[in-house]
Amino acid sequence: MKPRRLPVLRALVWLRDVFRIEGPLDEAGALEVIRADITFRGAKAWILVAAIFTASLGLNTNSAAVIIGAMLISPLMGPIVGMGAALAVWDVSLLTKSARNLAIAVGISLVTSSIYFLISPFGDAKSELVARTTPTLLDALIAIFGGIAGAVAAIRQDKSNVVPGVAIATALMPPLCTAGYGIAHLDSAFFLGAFYLFFVNGVCISAATYAVLRVAGFHKSSGLDERASRRVRRIVLTVVTVTLFPSVIIGYRIFQENAFEREINGLVEDMRERFTSSSVLVTYKRYSTTDPRLELTIIGTRLDTNDRRTVDSLQQAHGLSSTTIILRQAGDPSRLDRSPTLSTTKLLDLYTTAEAALATKNRIIDSLEQSLRGPMKADVSATDVMREASVVFSNLRSLSISPRTITYVRDGKADTSTTITADWAQRPSAKDVQSLTSWLAVRLKDSTIIVR
Predict the structure, then answer these.
(1) Higher pLDDT, 140 or 418
(2) What pTM was computed for the model?
């Protein structure tokens, strides 16, 4: 009788079968294909130039579709994968050839994109360009997993739909074009941020290729002993770690900025719920580890001392205790005039928002005025009504007249009535209450009167 395997062991065997790469590996064929994709000569160089121009146009016009098309025809992956493969099998000639051709490709890309952005009539940096200047650990992870997919496809020589997907996912071309924008506009922040993103992607793809070929069991060069092999692994790990370290710091800073943004939005929402007669607008915000700042403009009812204490409590509740919050309100124009943060666009936004808030309040006032006309349809003075009622009903001391609106849940319709609270010297009879109701309905010409 065959012994039964433990569930965990069966699961491990099943996973091994799922992820096993079937069939013998054609090491020589795979390396030959990788070697053929490295060289930038003739047609491949022209394809790279065309792809760079296309990607630059897409970045300049903020067109994601054009950028994706440029990435599909880009041949930049070849030398980067070649460097990872050369390290895995320790082929010095392949490593040298890959590095030389990568330098040629980068040079062609920077020159081409710089020329385009120098002659382009669209000078502003669109969001697609800005997005390539702040690499984070997420970009590195995308490059790593994209590189793994590309390396597996390379060793199986099955490139039907993997390589185009890897080219799009790893996005090697847009950062180089953005670096060209930085050169054309002499913007060091754009150049350094974008080139660092390209460098991170390239290192991660090469490292992923190296890891896949080592796991797949590709044979190393006979000139590389075990000690030298360990040294190569340490070098690869060190380069990857040093490369990723700044991206981890940038990613953490972006995380803090997003948290700062969420807390500000929460604070503003809470203030709008508390101060319903005022509009709260964010006119300036700046995240900083040492001096974060937030400027709020209050339109409508001014916030008094107690309201400011409430704002301080909300500030603490939202974790913004270290943030300097400046409240700007009507009545302090000198402070407003000194503010360098209120540009013409922001003032126009303030005016538009204030105008909308004023229109809403005017509609509410008109609705209230219309409902208040109900109890005095006869356009008479409440004092006259009370004087006449005291003559007819000697037991009556005072009357309080107020409108009431009833909204029905079923159909959402509203109904109005007039409620009159009567204060009697002595407890009235039901007949007295009915008589007063009938007399007021005739006197005020309002059949909805209810006497309490």
Answers:
(1) 140
(2) 0.60
pLDDT digits (tens, 9 = 90+) for 151-167: 777 776 555 555 556 66
Beta-carbon count within 10 A of 38 CB: 24
Residue 281 near residue 287, CB atoms below 8 Å? no
Report the distance separating Cα 116 and Cα 7, nearest Å. 61
Secondary structure tally for the chain: helices H, strands E:
17, 6
Instruction: Give the closest residue to 415 by CA, choosing from 405, 423, 425.
Output: 405
- Angle of helix 64-73 relative to helix 43-60, nearest 10 degrees? 170
Residues in the chain: 452
Answer yes or no: are the C-beta atoms of 144 and 207 closer than 8 Å: yes
Cα distances (angstroms) measured from residue 162 to each of 153, 228, 231 = 7, 33, 32
Where are any strands of DSSP class E within 346-407?
Answer: 396-407
Task: Calculate the CA 203 to chain-centre distance.
Answer: 27
Tell me the pLDDT tens digit for each residue of 248-307.
887 888 888 888 888 888 888 888 888 888 888 888 888 888 888 888 888 877 888 888
Give the three-state DSSP class for 329.
strand
pLDDT in tens, 155-212: 765 555 555 566 665 678 888 888 999 999 898 888 998 898 888 888 888 888 888 8
